[in-house]
Design goal:
The complex is a heterotrimer of chains A (300), B (232) and C (226). With 300 residues, chain A is an alpha/beta fold. Chain A has two domains: 44-138 and 231-290, 3-Layer(aba) Sandwich (D-Maltodextrin-Binding Protein, domain 2), CATH 3.40.190.10; 141-223, Periplasmic binding protein-like II (D-Maltodextrin-Binding Protein, domain 2, 3-Layer(aba) Sandwich), CATH 3.40.190. Chain A has eleven helices and 13 strands. Chain A has helices at residues 2-29, 44-49, 75-88, 104-109, 124-127, 169-177, 189-197, 208-217, 242-257, 261-268, 271-277, and strands spanning 52-56, 59-60, 64-66, 72-73, 94-98, 115-116, 130-132, 141-146, 161-165, 182-186, 203-207, 221-223, 236-238. Chain A is elongated. In chain B, 80% of the residues lie in helices and 0% in strands. Chain B has helices at residues 2-21, 23-56, 62-74, 78-88, 98-123, 127-135, 140-155, 157-170, 182-193, 196-225. In chain B, helix 2 (23-56) runs antiparallel to helix 8 (157-170). The model of chain B has no long low-confidence stretch (mean pLDDT 87). With 232 residues, chain B is mainly α. Chain C is mostly helical and 226 residues long. Chain C has one domain (5-225): MetI-like (MetI-like fold). Helix content of chain C is 79%, strand content 0%. Chain C has eight helices and no strands. The N and C termini of chain C lie far apart (50 Å). Chains A and C meet through strand 2, helix 7 and helix 8 of A and helix 1, helix 3 and helix 7 of C.
Chain lengths: 300, 232, 226
Amino acid sequence: MRRLVIVLVVTALAGVTIAAWGAVASARDAGPTQAKVKLPPLPANIKERKRWQIAVKCDTPPFGYIGARSQNAGFDVEIARWFARFAFGKPNRVTMSCVTTPAREPALTGERVDLVIATFTYNTDRETRIDFSRAYYKATGRLLVRNNSSIRSLADLPGKTIATTSGSVYERWVKNCHKDTKLIVTDGFTNAQLAFRDGRADALMFDDTILLGIAVTDPALKLTDDLFLAQPYGIGIKQGNVALKRWVDAALALMKKRDLFFPILKNTVPPRQVAPFSKNILRPNQNFAYNQGDITTVCS
Amino acid sequence: MTALLALDFTFLSDTWSFVETNFDELLAALRRTLQVSAIAIAGAFVIGLVLGAARAHRIPVVSQVAAVYVEIIRNTPILVQIFFLYYGLPQIDIFLDAYTVAWLAVMLWGGAFNTENFRAGFEAVPDRLREAGFALGFRPVANFLNVTLPVGGRIALPSSINTYISVVKNTSLMYVISYPELTTTVLQIQALTLETVEAFTVLALSYLIIVWTMSALIRLLESHLALPEAFK
Amino acid sequence: MIPAWTNDVLRYMLEQGLVNTLKIAAVALVGSVVVGVTFGTLLTIKFLPLRAVIRAYIEVWRGLPILVTIFIIYFALPAVSLSLRFDALTGAAIGLILWGSAQVAEATRGAVQSIPREQHEAASALGFGWVGRHAFVIMPQALRRLLPPLVSLLVNIIQNTTIAQVIGVNELLESGERSIERLNAPPPIGLGEIHSFEILATVMLIFFCISFPLTRLAAYLEKRLT
């Protein structure tokens, strides 16, 4: 009788220990959030695979880049990791593949990935071929010039030279709307910045997120007051995948409600810029939507 | 079967309408490709001839400098050379626009390979021919111009031709500096309209037509310039 | 004296960039040789339809720029049929194999046809059939003559792997580019400094150190075997 009681007690203790260990482990794996997430059902193929396949940028800090320890990092990458936590409980349940700008749409239409989270600007033309989630980051175009530059606003552009990256909305907009402005398009932002710094270009045109950082650290440079090409980024989804779009929109709404974008922002931009850029992200009291049409053709 | 034929006809008409819609851009792009290629081939010919001769005749200083130039260009990827010319030179205050880098990069590349082609050609000229030239009273420079160059140049012809054709193909790499030659232009159109199959068909056909035409013309030239057996 | 950032960058470039470059080059070389030698030998058979098909293959893949070939494999094929979808690394390797095999086929044809007829006749006299003749007498000699151009091809393939950068493959050049972008971003991500010159120069140097011995080897083999 006594032996039976001892066995039962030991088993019970072992069971409790194992259960506690499991709970602690899964809580650790689930990351900073512990509460259960209520999201619409995942599409069957992703659920079966138990992993996301998400395309991100690998050469566009602060959204998608390769960190010092050769890991994927950045604002978009963090969103991908949150999706992994929400769907499968662990942030590593995602295979991230690197995409170049022109490869983003084919990655979806060719079914190479489930989602594209790669500074993907919305436009109605793209919407005819792929689906976009709700907007998740409000990007605006800015113009960076030298302090003594004769360019004081977009109106001073004719005859001048602008540097920007190839395939960007800026390149298309300048080609459509500022035909008498010369363009230097480069492969990657650093090369555009170099072209501007070396004097080949009179102005640098790019996202506010990145240009503000340069303007703030270099006292000889400044941003003009122009704000243009304000079109948010969205997450790219294969056309017709209604279930996935529902899940992604719900996940983004959840992240907005829990203000999860704010800590991501703090990890990605210098401390002095957290405040100004906190207006670009989704927060509990902050919302933004897409502008319809193709803004690269809107010239005034 | 009829379905397959119908597919082919829509494909052909789609491809043709792709060309029609973008005709001006494509024509301008083609012109740029041919223009850059022509300048680069001419330059590569001159560089190859001069430096190849210098190397073959072991002219001091020039020979060594040429050797360094050839080895650097031959042993590094042309894509990196293009990046260097366009993005790296500005660090030492040399600013080249995309057009200049386009013809300069392929010219330097072609020139390096051509130097080796001509050097091998000149060195392959049988000694008895050169000795005959000296016996006829030619001074060294005249001997080169009248004996070594005509014979050696013809020996070098096949390999030079391969280099020139590669020069034309390498102009496609100007995509990375967005110089609007054929590849860049077609890919830009494709990125906007996603008419992937039509765009790449046009691109592939364009290059094949250019390269095959060049090869055919050059075979014609080769048969005219072939060396008689006695010279080999 | 050496700045602190070089450590991580160099590790990334060598461990990931260079490894991918060598991976693609190895696969492309093996594929090119296997396909190319086969096609080149078949090209010497006096059967017109076969020769025509192989000749078409050679002229197409030698006539197209490698950049265009790689784009076609990576972008155009999936548009034709979803099952023809390759990841960037595989697509780049296939593109290089198509080009490389065309080069090898042409070189093999030249090498096989340069073997004097007497060798064929002697082998036949000894009782070898077509296959035996080629396997034991002709090909060993032809392959020896192929060695210098094959080493040159390896050098070309290694350098042409950089073209894969445009479809996003993380080979040596791209790993350098990504490091440049990261270093240029302001802290906390990077350093806010542009180091493109140093990194590009390093890429060139690494390629030079790999290619130069191989080109010397090709020249040496050419002298030894001709």
